[in-house]
Amino acid sequence: ELDSRGPATLEGSGRLSGLPAEPAVEADITGRVAGWPGVPADVEDLVLSLSGRPDEWRAESSARVTGDEIPPGQWSLELSGSTRSLAIESLDARLLDGRVSGSGQLDWSESAPASRARLQLDGLDLTPLYPQWPNQGRISGQLAVATEAGAIDIESLDLRADPGDLSVTGSGTIDPAGDSVDVTLEWQQFAWPPVTDDAEPIVSSESGRIHLTGRISDWRAQVEAMMDSPRTPAARIEAEASGSREAADIRRLNIDAGEHGSLALNGRITWLPTMSADVDLALDSFDPGVFVGQLPGRIDGRAAIRLTRDEHWRLELGLDELEGRLRGQPLRGSGRLSWVDDRPEAADVSLQLGDNRIAVNNRETAAWQVELEAVSLEQLWPTLEGEARLEGGLQPEAGRLELTGGVDGLRYRDYNLEQADVDLRLTWLDRPSVKLAISGRNLDLRPWDRVDQLELTLDGTCEQHRLELNASGARGNIDLAAGGELGECLEGGLEWRGEVERLYLGETLAGDWRLAGAMPLTLSGRRVRAGSACLTTAADTPARLCLEELDLGESGRVVTRIERVPMDLLLLPIDPVFSLTTPLSGRVEAAWEAAGLSRLDGQLQLDSGVLKAIGDDQELLAIDSLRLDLQPGEDVPLTVGLQASLEGETTISGNARVADLRNLAETTLEGEARINLPDIAAFAHLVPRVDRIAGSAIGRVELTGPVTNPSVSGRLALEDGEIVHAPLGLDVRAIELELSGSADRAALSGRAESGDGELALTGQARLLEEGWRVDSTIEGKQFAFAGADWLELTASPRVTLEARPDEVRIDGDIRIDRLRGGLPPGTADKIEPSPDVEVRGETEDGEASAVAARREIRGRLGIDLGDDASLETESFRTELAGALELVWNGPPKPEGRGTIRLPDGSYRAYGQNLEIGGGEIIFTGRAIDDPRLDIRAVRDIFGDPEIESAGVHIAGSARNPEIELYTDPPTSQEKALAYVVTGSDFDHAGGQGALNVGFYLLPKLFVSYGVGLFETGNVLSGRYELSRHWGVRVVSGERDTGVDLSYTVNN
Length: 1051
Prior knowledge:
Elements (H helix, E strand, L loop, with lengths): L1 E3 L3 E10 L6 E10 L8 E12 L2 E11 L6 E9 L3 E11 L2 E10 L6 E11 L13 E11 L2 E12 L4 E9 L4 E13 L10 E13 L2 E12 L2 E12 L3 E10 L5 E9 L5 E11 L10 E13 L3 E14 L2 E12 L2 E11 L2 E6 L6 E7 L9 E12 L4 E13 L2 E13 L5 E14 L2 E13 L3 E9 L2 E12 L7 E14 L2 E5 L3 E6 L2 E4 L2 E4 L7 E9 L3 E11 H5 L6 E3 L2 E11 L2 E11 L2 E5 L5 E13 L6 E9 L4 E8 L9 E10 L14 E15 L4 E15 L4 E12 L3 E10 L2 E12 L2 E11 L1 E5 L4 E13 L2 E15 L23 H8 L3 E9 L4 E4 L3 E15 L4 E8 L2 E5 L2 E5 L2 E9 L4 E9 L8 E9 L3 E8 L4 H10 L11 E9 L2 E8 L5 E8 L4 E8 L3 E7 L4
Parallel strand pairs: 56-57, 56-58
Antiparallel strand pairs: 1-2, 2-3, 3-4, 4-5, 5-6, 6-7, 7-8, 8-9, 9-10, 10-11, 11-12, 12-13, 13-14, 14-15, 15-16, 16-17, 17-18, 18-19, 19-20, 20-21, 21-22, 22-23, 23-24, 24-25, 25-26, 26-27, 27-28, 28-29, 29-30, 30-31, 31-32, 32-33, 33-34, 33-35, 34-37, 35-36, 36-38, 37-38, 38-39, 39-41, ...
């Protein structure tokens, strides 16, 4: 019998017989292996069966395997073998929503063992491994490998993605004993991960081929590939190399990006008997954007790289010339740099990009001079702004560095720093020491979190140093001091030991807090340990936030104790918009292993208090008490219990059974909420654009089942409710709503009053196999939907709505009892952005349509305008009549059928008031926003025997209307304009409307040129003044040419 506890929790039984001549075993084992040191996976639900003799045995196993770096999956394995061979009869893994299967065998009976293996991939979804790329194809393929007499034979490699064009194939042989190699790898449309949209993958190549052939002692390699990415230009890579067991000669490595330039590299790399390299690099009009999309440009350059190792590592870099443009800025640079082991030896380097310059040299002194002047950081990187300056000296032999500088107007994404100064003194040889001072002001960590002043100092040696931080901001002040020692200073295996001597948090929403005593602290590798310490306050009701134990690492433990701590202090890091005045008390213990959380224990309790919006004294919700219990158990790792008493007689109770702390999706819920809120008015803060809500809420809700798909049942009701929205003049009162339901059905009923009318709502919902189906009806009579100065709307609707997972059906009619429409205040003065302005994060119309189009809309909605409807704006007024039917046939935008008449109105155009009579807006089954127009705005003409009226006729499509001036009886366009604007003709003799531009050539000679407004043509004229009264005018045009003699009576 087997029974073990610990990382390996196993149970089972077995039998060993036939000893000692012919031993045989039969065993069956179940259990789990979790948290085993050094093993990055947990094995759950393990079932193992083993039987047979050493020369003929068989094993079967199945288990669920999970881990931080491997996807969870169900694995099964069937093995058989003897003392001379092993056969994997079946390998099957269900993971990544796909399958991995395989088989193989290993035979070590001969002097050189042989093996064969085959692996099959089917429909693997890599999205959980690369969640940043949500749209990926599924990976399928196979790999077959065999070995014999020390030679490795890759029989086939085939990898593909569906959907997608990814294809990777390969084959080859590697024979160390025979001194031969022949391997080929080819691919088409390679992208990893295999994205199916325009997202940029980690690596992308249109096509490529790698061929390695020859002897291992004298091999040759060729590489051809086309690299491609949505954000970088395409580039062709070609490489040829040859070599032996000791070295490689790179004959050529070219990256040709076409119009984006090229990069070439050649040289020799040796790894036996010692490491060395001698490589030359050349750039010809090369665009770095091929590799880094944020750095487009054109660069020419030559560089030599030399690497040697004897007693020391030595690297020499010679930058012979570097020039071109980068990110639209001129680039220049040159210099030499040498490095020995872990320290620089000599340098003379200068780089300049636009207005930014950095120089490092030690030409005249042993000390290196470092100078950075970056007056336009935005020229260096797209998300950087501001200025930076830095200067100082570096003495490598003495192990000393001195730098002073600062930044002004620094901005990176949402982080801003108005100004900061830096002063650094660093030594690292005999007795390493540091003296650092940073002071800054107006640091915006996030758009809503500003630090007004910041002072940071670090001073001391490895054996003894001190850190101080002082910062003040809108959310409070912090004063921190710590000191300690750094063991094995700068020698690797660092361990810092010290203590936080002072910590003060002042002027927070929760008052002033300070550290009661020094807190021991140790940092070693990836582990952090802290001793017990408490934050306390000097308020009338003393509170304490204590850390009893902290051990952070791959595995660890933390224990905290809380004594009447205001929730506002604990919520401070998330910048809440609400204030919770209830104090929190309790104790929580948590432990974890490499695989995840392993233990959670404790209880938390909130005393009485209120929830309210910050900056507003109105209470949103009163909290009498709340208690949360975390209890580890024998049958389940954790049971979470909740008991809460809220405003009125509202209570919430329930528990959650967490079956696996590392997989919360397996949690089951069981809870109940009894709601009795006498007044919900305070919750208006939670409803956008609503000025006031009122009413009382009562109900009971039960929640049961798995956390991923819980079952909800119960009843909720709103009584004597009210909603007020001032901009629309909406005042809905006497609201009665009731929602009841169970796991697979729900019912909704309600009524409300507004104006002199009322509205009723009923609905039923059922859970079908394909999803929820909702049937609802809205009926109303003279219900006031708006009552503002610019909009009054009273209507009587009768509408039914059927909603399914894939379709929505609408049927009904709305009668308009009263409509007085206009424009909202300020609309006339609104300034629209320029068409070329793009708003980051704004949803494109196509994206919105795609989201809406996932569910089809079908049905009709009739609208009867009745006999009391009108529309009025600053320059337009009309009565409205008629009817319109909206029809949906799938897309969310409906079609329109019907006619809206404009029986009487006025329209102000060309500075005149024109009367509207008999206009029509005609909907003929086209899109609702593209009806046909037939509107005439007319004015009567008096005193002209030929013309009775003149006006504007708007006709055609609403998207592309035709606007025409006309008269009755008809005349020319220019005369129609004259009649509309002035009520009479400009020139009864028949002139031509034109735009004239002229000037005086001589004091008495005026020349002008005119272009027709309504007809094509132009006119050239000249006028000469013979005397004060007499003048002559010459005209030449396409219609008329002549000479006029004029006499002026009054000049």
